[in-house]
Amino acid sequence: MVKPLNQNLISRVPSTWISRQNELSHFHTKTQLIQRLQDCNDIMSISFNHTNVLKNGFLNDNFTTNHLLSSYVRIRRTKDAYQLFEEMREPDVVSFTSLISGFINVGRPKSALTIFGKMLESWVLPSSFTFATVVKACSMLADLRTGQKIHSHVETFGLQHNLVVRSSLIDMYGKCNNVEDARLVFDGMDYRNVVSWTSIITAYGQNALGECALQLFREFNSFPSNSPNHFMLTTVINACSSLGRLVSGKAAHAAVIRRGHESNEVVASALVDMYAKCGSIGYSEKVFRKIPDPSVIPYTSMIVGAAKYGLGKISLNLFMEMINRRIKPNNVTFVGVLHACSHSGLVDEGLEYLHSMHKQHGVAPDAKHYTCVVDMLGRTGRLDEAHQLAKSILVEPDQGALLWGTLLSASRLYGRVDIASEASKWLIEANQQVAAAYVTMSNTYASAGKWENVHSIRYEMKRNGVYKEPGCSWVEVRDSAFVFYAGGVSSCARGSEVGSLLRELGRRMKERGYVGGSAGLVSVDVEEEAKEEIVGLHSERLALAFGLISIPKGVTIRVMKNLRMCRDCHEAFKLISEIVERDFVVRDVNRFHHFENGSCTCRDFW
For residues 126 and 119, what is the distance between their CA atoms, to the nearest angstrom? Predict the structure, then answer.
């Protein structure tokens, strides 16, 4: 029989020892709670442990409570996290930063900025991670003014040299379209890592300064110790896409392979897009087919790429392949599908896809989808239907610009002065695409021979200070881009040779029945011979002639143009491809044209 412990013995145990045992028990309970909170991934287990925190009196222990708050943030329960935060007696920097991060992760950057405002009013000092996190909120909102205020706080708290904070500031300024300040922050850095380099390259790329982005990438690679990550490579590939720089894009692709990033879906999708936008749809398909299990993103890139190339049937086949694999299309996928139908004359199919969007796939059509349908109807001459559809859609000015601009272009193509006049009036009153609206309307009147109206529009443009965007084309030769402007034969590279070749090609085209200076292409009333000369010096012709004398035979010449290719140049390019027995690709603002043996892949439908 076990005897009970002698009470006199218990009384002789030092009180400090008992206190120590209680502290150890308390510590073990706390440690176990924190461990369980770190492992929680659902609301039931977090709620259970929240109860234990209360039972054991740890609510006023910030170390434990911050773990509980982080658990709510981890499963995106920001409402519960905020309620817990409000109950804390003295939240610290970890508490504030966790909640700010939580709001950003659920797409509530304004709430994140509100919490940061409360932090500044308290005794708690922000950390470098706090600033990096709250700067991200400004990036998401593209809120330059607030971003600049936070930048000043960074300086005040002495964190201006922190690498993570500076990289966040570069990203923020880039997303706010302030590349100058992004570059100032970058240039002021004593040390730069791959994140800061990626941020500044992305800033240039996102602001249509692809050439600067590529130059910075070359500078980054000049340091032997530097190694690009997949984020940087994706940005560089996107810059090559926007510029149409195939040679640079292939170099970036080689870097992707060397670094082992070819299996990354985001990188692969960027490559698919880049090759398509550079006129190499075959390479796009090769990259796409190497993706082990493509999601909606690479499928969409491939569908849009084929659509831009006029390969509507291929786009639609890819869409059906995607559906058969039970991959849910998104709104961008349907823009690609409708674009494919539009550029291939598949009107009935396009209308069927429009009606199936919401009914079968749960995607509600928006202004971009209806714009594709207006384009689809307009291209096939169904102007009245396109006009009625455009009038029935309520859109914001920026969305309406594309819609009514599309209708205006179609109206000009079919000589519908009445619809063109209404479309241009809408654009001018909405202060959207004003120069393009004036010029297209002027050309529409010129096509109809209404020269008084042409002169009136030109006078109005001059009075209002509206100027037409100059026609510009460029061609890549050995990783260098050569730019050409309409009529600039005397100032362009190898100008005398370019002019001589164009005259020779003009003579040989006339022998085949070509007549230059088609109606409506010159918006001034001049003699036919003068019209022919003006059209003959369009920027794409100068670029093509330069390419013919600079790029070896057997290599496809790729010309990029900032405006829509005119019909006269389109006819000329078909003839030239037959005369010189070479193929060339033109990317204009709308689509691709691949000329070979006297024909074009668009089948004269664009």
Answer: 8
If the chain, 606 residues long, is cut into consecutive pieces of 10 residues, what is the mean pLDDT of each piece? Answer: 42 43 48 76 78 74 85 89 91 95 95 96 94 96 96 94 95 96 95 94 93 94 90 95 90 93 92 92 93 93 90 94 96 94 90 94 93 93 94 84 89 88 86 79 81 82 79 86 85 87 92 69 38 64 94 91 88 94 90 90 77
Residue type, 117: G
Q: Look at the block and give the residue holding tokens 């259970």.
A: 48
The 10s digit of each residue's pLDDT in 97-127 is: 999 999 999 999 999 999 999 999 999 999 9
Token representation of residue 223 = 């340091």
Q: What's the mean per-residue pLDDT of the chain?
A: 86
DSSP letter at 564 equals P
Angle (nearest 5°) at CA 279 between 275 and 282: 65
Contact 169, 154 (CB under 8 A): yes
> For every residue of 290-307, which 3-state class applies, written as one string?
CCCCCCHHHHHHHHHHHH
pLDDT tens for residues 472-492?
A: 999 988 878 899 998 887 778
494 three-state secondary structure: coil
- Separation CA 271–CA 448 (nearest Å): 44
Distance CA 229, CA 194 (A): 7
| Cβ–Cβ < 8 Å for 134, 116 | yes
CA-CA-CA-CA dihedral for 58, 64, 66, 70, to nearest 10: -120
As a whole number of angstroms, the distance between CA 406 and CA 417 comes to 14
Helices (H), 380-433: 383-392, 397-413, 417-429
From the CB of residue 317, how many other CB atoms can be counted at a distance below 10 Å?
Answer: 13
Single-letter amino acid, residue 191: Y
How many CA atoms within 13 Å lie on the side-chain side of 61?
18
Kindly give the residue spans of alpha helices, DSSP state H, lying in 176-226.
179-187, 194-206, 210-221
Interacting residues of 219 by C-beta distance below 8 A, sequence separation 6+: none
User: What are the φ/ψ torsions at residue 12 (nearest 5 degrees)?
Assistant: -85, -5
| pLDDT tens digits along 201-251 | 999 999 989 999 999 999 999 988 889 999 999 999 999 998 888 989 999
CA 485, 487, 491, 495 dihedral sign is: positive
**What span, in angstroms and rounded, lies between the C-alpha atoms of 45 and 68?**
11
Strands (E), 220-289: none
For 592, phi then psi, to 5°, come to -105, 150
Tokens standing for residue 187? 């240039």
Q: What gap in Å lies between CA 257 and CA 266, rounded to an integer?
A: 14
